[in-house]
Amino acid sequence: DQEEKLAKLIGAAKKKLSRVSSGQTESPGESESLKDLQEIMKKIREAMNNKSLSRAKKMQIISLLPDSWGVKRIQKEFNVSKALIRKAKKLTTEQGLMPDPPLRSGRPVPNETKDKVIEWYEDEENSRMLPGKKDYVIIRENNSNKGTFSVYHRKTFPCKKQVQKRLVLCNLKELYLSFKEKHSELKIGFSKFCELRPKYCVLAGASGTHSVCVCAIHQNFKLKVDSAALEVNKKILDYKEVLQLVLCDDPGEPCYTGCCSACPGIPALRNVLELAFESRQQDNIEFKQWTSVDRCAFETILQTKEVFIDSFLEDIPVVLLHHFIAKSQSQFYRDLKLNLKDGECIVVGDFAENYTPVYQDAIQKIHWSNIQVTLHPFVSYFRENGEEKCLSFVIISDTEDHQNEEVFTFLHSYIPFLKEHVPNLKHIYYFSDGAASQYKNRKNVTNLRMHFDDFGLTAEWHYFATSHGKGPCDGLGGTLKRHAARESLQKIKNQEKVTDAPSFFRWAEKKFMKKDEEKVGGGDDEQEEHAELEQEIEQEKEAREKKTKVHVCYVSSENINMIKEKYRQRFSTCPAVDGIKSCHAVIPLSSNTVFFKQYSSSNNGFYSYFGPKNEVNFCDIYGFVTVHHENDWRVGFVEERFENELEVEITLLEKINNTHHKIPQENRLNVKKKLEEIIKIVNVEVQDNLVFKLRRDGVPKFVGKEKQKTKSQTKRSI
Fold first, then answer.
1. Which residues contact 715 (CB under 8 A, 6 or more apart)?
2. How far, in Å, CA of 440 to CA of 665, rounded?
3. Which of 37, 534, 561, 566 falls 20 to 30 Å from 90 in CA-CA distance?
4. Are 611 and 698 in contact (CB under 8 A)?
5. Where is the stretch described as Disordered (predicted)?
């Protein structure tokens, strides 16, 4: 409105100026208009002299001036540059009055930086996939080779695809700061970082994110940090910055596990808390917490500042260790994917939420039916000719039990498929969450020890930190359930409805596995007429086949019961594993020996022997023994015993290969071992240069003499 008024006044001024220039006399009423015109020009000069006025506004004002005004006159009247005047006149010629100057293009962000930002959003540490069948967004593909060909329009329209949502686990400011901390060499501003956020990476509070399971340890600590409102240099700290107050500048494993003497520690944080509450004269602190006694609840708690500080500091060691393990397991998983060798395979597995069939035009009583379909996705990664490959496999079952016996039965169907598709498969790295009833229990440890005997492959199992196990399996399960629910609601004649587990399998097998070739036309003339259409269909088909195909398999309750009966003795006699709850890596060394680690990349851990009980008394230790040594087990013979320290000095046999050892002739390795590091005593009478093969039960088996000539052989009775 103001611009229109200004345009009218300037138009009147133009008329007035033209009259004056032509020598016309003023009428009595025109004297007042001249004063108004002078006042307008005065305000325009004041506006043009305002430094905060943008170049675009100045050019729009200049466009309203008379065409007879030259560059020099405008420069004299309004004190602007000649370049600005020429630019304004050029835009006025092109666009007319009040032109919109084009925005000045800034320095473009390189594509490499954009890719890094998108990878950062999709990182498992920063976002995780939502498991629901409705948790998706529709993305349009702009690639011209993919799309829907319209016969009427004779062109291909960009096709739509449904992409599973990922929930960003922090606010964008925190995510940007962590990105800049890791990639300090990349130049990108916060606004551009937010602009590059993929559409499928949603923020907390968006539609469908209210039901996401988050980590209770992290979430409760964040709620306490928010209530404490700690400030350092007028900056409110988030939970990561609070943890940094008790750690070294460059923290390592000892800092997070409480073994570092150089860390500021708890006293430094106590001082910050006390000063913060004293400065605000705050005696009571109110905060929210997730509690679970009889049921889970979100409660409001009121505590005095002394009690709050004590409980806050008691949480620090737990949060530090949990935070470290969560980051370590995610980093180990990423590094392992990047450095997979030939013959190795990563398998990520997890139960999806059960699928409840939906019906179109259903009767009221179906609401109380309890028919459900169990889905257990497996996503595997391996390398073929140096290129990373991915396989998606989903077990469909009518069982409603989610126990370790079901997982073991599913592996009997999955591993043969894996052997068929992964060339020269020798070793499997399993990854899952730490659910005690499904994966982290004594039965699974026993099955893992017998993995080579059952499937002919070695394996180890790694667990993500508590409530940090969301991964590709959740998205895979959600995708299948979404497609099944959508097609169940479509009224298509002669189409089988998805009403139970068998029909779900038949539908999924038909939709995701069968390759029905598309044909167009019957005769040669008709095929020539539709040659262009055939080409478009072939391009679409080729693009579709490049996508990851989902393989499905049906496992009935009868199959599960057969496996349970077959391995009943194994399941009923599984020995307990002390300390397995705090372990996140289980690595079998043999069928009787397992190495447990607190986190996968650690060099430390503890051994457990599950073979026949053979209590070792110190006084009975002599001759040959099997011992733990450098994350492995070796055979050696006892040289000397130290009764005061309950230690023995052992000469280790030389390792020829993974299964054969021999008595070394020179450069013998003598080590001291404690009583608990000795697995088994093996009393035999042997000679030098004899070769022994280590059986899977840890007992050396005589093979024969080494093929080399020696001058003499000294008989050694031990």
1. 687
2. 44
3. 37
4. yes
5. 516-542
pLDDT band of 704, cuts 50, 70, 90? very low
The letter for the amino acid at 550 is V
Question: 607 φ, ψ to 5°?
Answer: -100, 150
Backbone angles phi, psi at 233, to 5 degrees: 55, 45
- Contact status, residue 469 vs residue 433, Cβ threshold 8 Å: yes
pTM for this predicted structure: 0.61
Please tell me the predicted confidence (pLDDT) of residue 545.
46
pLDDT tens string 626-654: 777 766 677 887 888 787 767 888 888 87
Rounded Cα distance, 465 and 320, in Å: 13
pLDDT at 697: 45
d(CA 95, CA 109): 31
- Which tokens go with 453? 């005997």
DSSP β-ladder status, 201-202 and 166-168? parallel
CA 368 centroid distance within chain: 37
User: Which tokens go with 200?
Assistant: 């499928």
Q: What is the pLDDT of residues 405-453, one digit of tens each?
A: 999 999 999 999 999 999 889 999 999 988 888 899 999 999 999 999 9
How confident is the prediction for the chain on average, in pLDDT? 77
Calculate mean pLDDT across residues 311-331.
88
Half-sphere exposure of 405 (CA within 13 A, CB side): 21
Q: How many CA atoms lie within 13 A of 451 on its CB side?
A: 25
Query: Helix/strand/coil (H, E, C) string of 460-519?
Result: EEEECCCCCCCCHHHHHHHHHHHHHHHHHCCCCCCCCCCCCHHHHHHHHHHHHCCCCCCC
pLDDT-based confidence at residue 562 (cuts at 50, 70, 90)? very high
Measured CA to CA, the distance from residue 672 to residue 621 in angstroms comes to 13
What is the predicted pLDDT for the residue at 659?
A: 61
pLDDT at 714 over 50: no
Query: Quick one: which of 161, 146, 155, 160 has its CA closest to 543?
Result: 146
Element holding 524 (H helix, E strand): helix 524-529
Q: How far is the C-alpha of 27 from the C-alpha of 20, rounded, in Å?
A: 12
- Map tokens 């597995």 to a residue: 349
How is residue 636 annotated by DSSP?
E
